[in-house]
Amino acid sequence: MKRITLGGLVLLAVVALAVLGGRTQSASAKPQAGSLVGTGSTFVFPLVSKWIPAVDNALGIKLTYSATGSGAGIAQVTARTVDFGASDAPLSPDQATACKSCVVIPWGLAGMSVPYNVPGLNGRLRLNGTVLANIFLGTITNWNASAIKALNPKLKLPDLPIKPVYRSDGSGSTYAFTNYLSAVSPQWKSKVGTNTSVNFPTGTGARGSSGVAGVVKSTEGALTYVDAAYSIQNKFQFALIQNRAGGFATPGVRGVTAALSQLPAKVTNLSQLKIVDPPKSAGKRAYPISTFTYVIVPTNSGDKAADLRKLIYWTVTSGQKFGPPLYFVPLPKAVNGFVYREIKKIQSGA
Amino acid sequence: MTTTTYDKAPESDLRRRGIRPGDVVFKGLAVVASLAAAALLALIAYKVLRLAWPAIQDFGLSFVWTNAWDPVKGQFGALIFVYGTVVTSLIALALATPISIAIALFLTEIAPKKVAAPIATMVELLAAIPSVVLGLWGILVFGPWVRDHLEPWLKDTLGFIPVFSGEPSQAGILPAALVLTIMVVPITSAICRELFLRVPRDLTDGALALGSTRWESIRGVMLSYAAPGIVAAVLLGLGRAFGEAIAVSQTIGNHNAIPTSWFEPGDSLGSKVASEYVGATSLEQASSILYLAAILMVISLVTNVVAQVVVVRFERARRAV
Predict the structure, then answer these.
(1) Which residue among A169, A198, A204 places its CB closest to the CB of B278?
(2) pLDDT per residue over B136-183, tens digit each?
(3) Which residue, A89, A237, B8, B196, is the most exposed by fewest CB within 10 angstroms?
């Protein structure tokens, strides 16, 4: 008897400790108003890191952000374990349903570069969408292919197999790049499609921007896609991409800004935010592969709603000036009305 | 009279000793810890299966031998990854087993003690290298070396076999298998060394006294005495190879196809789960990835059970002799 009661007491103590421990944990995971927790896109992370101290100064909001990938951002905001998620791909219809009335707000914009490793090239490589799509489809396999020669009459292209490299982890970069390839190549659109991870017909996968960069550096003949900031900061040689106006553009702030000119004067919904492969009217400087990155917030945000509204309003206005040094492009005026309207939908919902 | 009182005294003493709080706390902790470990295993298995359930219902068992993985079109199957996992692990096993036994024999039988001790420590330290670091080394150093030297040589000498034909590549089935070999060798060789050290000296001395050569005593006495242990060690290494995700994901090339050549990129179960779950965009994709995780769990479980059965069988056979 006595033994049993003692054993029971020990068990009770253990259970009580576990419960108490659990309680303190759940208390710390939901911080007081004045602090916000978000997760998701790694692409937007450099920009968010600049925002964190600035938001603390300007609004007194303590912002915590972890770069876990766009897919994780969507999953966690759907499960309501964070206050907001961040993704480089807008929610698919299925995801929007699962997220139960979430708003998706563009809060960053940047270009995607196409770095390559072709040793001994006497100049900058020039490519266009069709050639890129055919390289990643596996129909153009050598650097001295006539289609590449036609775009680069002055380059001495070597007889070297092309080795396409892609992101093996689900990523917004893959979404932006496949979105572009689908826009320029009907064959890509029907055979592969657009997503954060797709079934690449040929090539080698690697994890993260640094992973693909590592493979490209050590592989002669490699070609990949990575956000412009990463390429510029790591001094990669990247290709000039031909736009519809016939110009060969770079993914700098000016190139992406020019590509925005095709947006309607007043954007009213997310599907209008297509900026890949801009029309001829965008001009010769327009860079054809760029992407918006989004913040995803539940419309019913409880006591966090006011802070979330303040934070997102700040990021899409004052926060945008932190972009250009990181090769993020300030949001165009055309989206302002849409963004403000969506921000207003974030309510405490009591 | 005196005897009865004498009898009672130690009995009550025992009872008093039996309920010492220290013992009770210790017993309680031990019971809770072991039950918690068992419960955790069951909970993890349950959660993986539950999250994989939509895919299991959609695709059924044929998922396991379906050769497709296309998140855009919603076509999923495990064959590509089962192939990658099994082939890389078996190559690793085929290479690691003789190397491990050779290392263990060298350290216990051939090397002088002064040499054996530091080498044994170094081999074991090889196991302490985090797999992500080994994978990085695979990307930056080892993979390019395999592409520039090993694979061209294999192609020249064994190119008539389909798996050794094709374009040398720094990331593929073969580089991943070789990195796995490096990860498996320290585990298997450490266990083999322990096994060889435990072979009774009388037995080997007896064999030598009967006129057998050193090799005959190693083969006839040591290896056969340690056989069940070696099999268990090998299967333990196989379990390690099956489950490795990060280093494989960094070196296998992550391509959704079954390559004809071992030089070309493929993918494995663990690698696919590690690289794609976080970015999964649809419920179907996420649950298919968990289906892959469930398959991996079943494969590992079967390997472990087989290892135990083999050990028991060997023990029985040895006792019968």
Answers:
(1) A169
(2) 899 889 999 999 999 999 999 998 988 898 888 889 999 999 999 999
(3) B8
Contact residues, chain A, for B25 at CB < 8 Å: 10
Check residue B127 and give its pLDDT. Answer: 85
Q: Which pLDDT tens digit goes with each residue over B101-123?
A: 999 999 998 889 899 989 999 98
Homologous superfamily (CATH) for B63-320: MetI-like (1.10.3720.10)
Q: What is the ipTM of this complex?
A: 0.78
Q: In this complex, is the C-beta atom of A203 within 8 Å of any C-beta atom belonging to chain B?
A: yes
Determine the distance in angstroms separating the CA of A212 from the nearest CA of chain B, rounded to an integer. 10
* DSSP per-residue string spanning A205-227: EESHHHHHHHHHHHSTTEE--EE
Report d(CA A327, CA A227) in Å as an integer.
Answer: 9
Cα separation, B42 vs A254, in Å, equals 56
Could you report the per-residue pLDDT of B290-316, keeping only the tens digit for each? 999 999 999 998 988 888 888 888 778
Taking the CA of residue A59 and the nearest CA in chain B, the distance in Å comes to 32
Extents of the domains making up chain B: 13-59, 63-320
Task: Provide the pLDDT for residue A151.
Answer: 92
At residue A32, the pLDDT reads: 46
Interface-testing mutation among B146, B251, B264, B275, with chain A (most A C-beta atoms within 10 A): B275
Judged against a pLDDT cut of 60, whether residue A214 lies above it is answered with: yes
Contact B276 A197 (CB under 8 A): yes
Query: Which residues have C-beta within 8 Å of that of residue B320, sequence separation ≥ 6?
Result: none
Q: Report d(CA B260, CA B173) in Å as an integer.
A: 10
The pTM assigned to this predicted structure is 0.80
Residue B215 · residue B298 · CB < 8 Å: no
Determine which of B31, B145, B246, B254 to mutate to test the interface with A (most A C-beta atoms within 10 Å).
B254
Calculate the CA B93 to chain-centre distance: 9
> DSSP characters for A288-343?
S-EEEEEEEEESB-GGGHHHHHHHHHHHHTGGGGGSGGGTBPPPPGGGHHHHHHHH
Do A192 and B72 make contact, defined as CB atoms within 8 angstroms? Answer: yes
Contact A193 B72 (CB under 8 A): yes
